[in-house]
From TrEMBL:
It holds the Pfam family C1q. One of its GO terms (cellular component) is collagen trimer. This is C1q domain-containing protein. It comes from Perca flavescens. Residues 136-273 form the C1q domain. SUPFAM superfamilies: TNF-like (SSF49842).
Amino acid sequence: MLQISAGETENSTVFWTMGGYYGLAVLVGVSLLLTTGQCDVSCSGLDGRPGERGAPGRDGHPGAKGEKGEPVVMAEGPEDPGVLLRLKGEMGSRGSQGVMGPKGYRGALGAAGSPGTAGRPGPNGKSIGHGGQHSPLQARSAFSVIRTDRSYPRVGQVVTFQNTVVNTPADFNAATGHFTCRVSGVYYFTFHSVAKVSVCLSIASDALLDKLGFCDYNKNSDQVLSGGAVLQLTAGQKVWLESFRDQQRPSELTDSQDKQIIFSGFLLFANTE
């Protein structure tokens, strides 16, 4: 080791100092070499423990879209039904109409609907009546009467009636048995009788050349006789019901069992001329 006196210059002192550090470093290095040479055979270090698992990383960015694939081509061999269902084929032809199914059950009756709107007014009617004459558009005539007398109607006489059901407007006289035409036009007349003996009745009128006779003969039960006629009448002509004899027995003409005769008539339409 170098020794420098105290009276040496400042530069010499620095050199001493740097030389001293250098020597110290050499000694430390030799000491480490000696220690390492002794532990190469008899000394060994312990293994370190594994580190902890790190936190999951973030998702990566989406990848680029791939190229369009080639059209599907079936390979030779058995066809896979699952694959065929996924393949869209061409539209087939329309099938034939199936058989009509059975009629369904009838549904419940719904609530009544709201009233409809009123229709437009119709045209004004035309009246052709003059003075006291009745207009055909307003003309009306109808009657229905019933005979309840148990005696047989006298042969050749007009049948009279005891009860009046309808007589509008009083064109029929129940006491005389005559209907008198008030409005010229076409009328319909009909009668029905029920008795336990044979009955013959005829429709008579000033408008007929001959009487229209109808008969029903007893068959040991209630006899039902009906007759009718359509007549063209002018004002003042009469229509009535009349009894006549055909093949009835004398006892039947004097029979007093229950009997009933209904005589009816009404205007179908009035003359327009």
